[in-house]
């Protein structure tokens, strides 16, 4: 083989190996930073209960944005209320830098998605499937609740049912989306709590 080609090939392989080492280290850092998360969100982010969200296999962009929104900002030395309120999570994220939070999001997003094992109500599933608002939901989240083309839209197919329901109620009651970055969620304000519960159960049932 030509010596010039050999040198070029070696350089490419060296860069690739170095890149893989950096990625592996970042992934390991994310796992280490996120060890505490498993006590609630389950091993590798697969939640066991029905009210705490699974985060393993969730879209990276959505995870990162959500986590950073729950971290209180500091402006001119004064702590500001986080964009997304959560008593426990804002205390937790105060102890991490933005880069550490991004590393956690990267690690959890690389884990396999495990659909909820929570018991589901078939009557509610049927009502959710028959909802006239279902098409509005699937237009963004996809028919299986997983829009792989937009990482900013959360994966909800197979997510824990009560978490989905409580999230919908937060949007409906203006406790989430205070900055108006998700205007499409205003649609839930016209849906009854009972129908939201059924929609949550339906999406939780998707595999």
From TrEMBL:
GO molecular function: electron transfer activity; heme binding; iron ion binding
Localisation per UniProt entry: Periplasm
Cross-referenced InterPro entries: Cyt_c-like_dom, Cyt_c-like_dom_sf, Cytochrome_c4-like, Cytochrome_c_Oxidase_Subunit
Positions contributing to heme c 1 binding: 37, 40-41, 89
One cellular component (GO) term of this entry: periplasmic space
Record keywords, A-Z: Electron transport, Heme, Iron, Metal-binding, Periplasm, Signal, Transport
Listed Gene3D superfamilies: Cytochrome c-like domain (1.10.760.10)
Chief location bin: periplasm
Signal sequence annotation: 1-24
Keyword Mitochondrion: no
Domain Cytochrome c: 1-112, 123-207
Organism for this UniProt entry: Candidatus Mucispirillum faecigallinarum
Top-level taxon: Bacteria
Residues that hold heme c 2 according to the record: 137, 140-141, 185
Pfam families the record matches: Cytochrom_C
Protein name, as recorded: C-type cytochrome
PTM: Binds 2 heme c groups covalently per subunit.
